[in-house]
TrEMBL record:
The keyword Kinase applies. SUPFAM superfamilies: NAD kinase/diacylglycerol kinase-like (SSF111331). The keyword ATP-binding applies. It is found in: Cytoplasm. It catalyses: NAD(+) + ATP = ADP + NADP(+) + H(+). This is NAD kinase. Its EC number is 2.7.1.23. Involved in the regulation of the intracellular balance of NAD and NADP, and is a key enzyme in the biosynthesis of NADP. Catalyzes specifically the phosphorylation on 2'-hydroxyl of the adenosine moiety of NAD to yield NADP. Belongs to the NAD kinase family. It holds the Pfam family NAD_kinase_C. Its cofactor is a divalent metal cation. Signal peptide: none annotated. NCBIfam families: PRK04885.1 (NF003424). The gene is nadK.
Length: 275
C-alpha cells in the first residue's frame, strides 16, 4: 500500500505525521506523494478539503482517511491518541489487500464565459455571492426558468457538505448515500420583482441548475476553500458529478448518523431517576 500525509501545519499534526511514518515504515507501507493509494489528512475538515483538491484528478485510485486535531472534524474518523491503532489497521489492510471504502457524491460546476467552459468539482459546497452589490441572477432548473434571485448569495452543497455552510443556512442534512445536490439561499430579498421559493431545494442526479448572473457583475465564487473573484461569468451549471465520487477508507465502522450526533448534539441518554 502506498500512502501520503497532508497535515494542517501545526506542531501536533506534524508530530502525528512523524509518528505515523515511524509506525508503518517497517511493515512495507510506502510513502508516495505522487500516486498514493490512501491519503491521510491530519488536521480539521479544512485539511481534508486541501487534500481532496490536491488529488481531485486521481479520485478513481485514491481513498482518504482523517485524523482530527482541530475543533470539529466531520470528515475525520480518528482521534490523535488512536494513531497507533490506525497504523495497525492500515498495515493489516495492506497485508490482506483488502481496503474497504465508502463513496460520497460530489457537485460538478461548469462555468461558462466568453472564452469557453471551465469544469470544477467540490466536496463540500459551491457558493456564489455579490461583491459590491447584492447578487442578482436568474435560476433555471432542467433548462426551465425557475426564479429570479436577489440577495447575498446562493449555496449549492453535496450530501457530505450538507452538514457545513448549508446547515447554517437552514438546509437539510442529507445522507451521503443519496446522489443529490442542495440549493440554499443566502439572505434572499423577496418583493414583486424578485421572487424566490424561500426554502432549500434538493435536485437528484441527472437534474441540473443553471445560474445566470447579471452581466458583468463582480461575483465572489468559492469552491470549498478555494475563493476567486470574477466578472466574466455568463452562466454556471451545477449538478451531481457523473461517474465521479470521493472515496473514504473505512478501517472500522463509523455510521453517518453517529457522526452527525457526535458533531452537533453530543447525545447522552437520560438516566432514569430513582425515587
Amino acid at each position: 500500500m502506498k500512502y501520503n500525509v497532508v497535515h494542517r501545519g501545526d506542531e501536533v499534526s506534524f508530530q502525528l505525521m512523524q509518528t505515523f511514518h515511524r509506525l508503518v515504515e517497517p511493515h512495507g507501507l510506502i510513502h508516495d506523494e505522487e500516486t498514493p493509494d490512501v491519503v491521510l489528512s491530519i488536521g480539521g475538515d479544512g485539511t481534508m478539503l486541501h487534500a481532496f483538491h490536491q488529488y481531485k484528478d486521481q479520485l478513481e485510485t485514491i481513498a482518504f482517511v482523517g485524523i482530527h486535531t482541530g475543533r470539529l472534524g466531520f470528515f475525520a474518523d480518528w482521534k490523535p491518541d488512536e494513531v497507533e491503532l490506525l497504523a495497525d489497521m492500515m498495515i493489516e489492510s495492506s497485508r490482506l489487500n483488502d481496503l474497504r471504502v465508502v463513496k460520497y457524491p460530489l457537485v460538478e460546476i461548469q462555468i461558462t464565459t466568453a472564452q469557453g467552459i471551465e469544469t470544477q468539482l467540490a466536496l463540500n459546497e459551491f457558493t456564489l455571492k455579490g461583491v459590491d452589490v447584492t447578487l442578482m441572477a436568474e435560476l433555471h432548473i432542467n433548462d426551465e426558468p425557475f426564479e429570479t434571485f436577489r440577495g447575498d448569495g446562493i449555496c449549492i452543497s453535496t450530501p457530505p457538505g450538507s452538514t457545513a455552510y448549508n446547515k447554517s443556512l437552514g438546509g437539510a442534512i442529507v445522507h451521503p448515500s443519496l446522489d443529490a445536490i442542495q440549493i440554499a439561499e443566502i439572505a434572499s430579498i423577496n418583493n414583486r420583482v424578485f421572487r424566490t421559493l424561500g426554502s432549500p431545494i434538493l435536485l437528484p442526479k441527472h437534474h441540473h441548475c443553471d445560474i445566470y448572473p447579471r452581466s458583468h457583475q463582480t461575483i465572489l465564487l468559492s469552491l470549498d476553500h478555494v475563493i476567486m473573484q470574477r466578472n466574466d461569468i455568463i452562466s454556471i451549471r451545477s449538478m451531481v458529478a457523473a461517474g465521479k465520487k470521493v472515496k473514504f477508507a473505512r478501517f472500522r465502522p463509523f455510521p453517518f448518523w453517529s457522526r452527525v450526533r457526535e458533531a452537533f448534539i453530543g447525545y447522552e441518554p437520560i438516566q432514569e431517576r430513582k425515587p
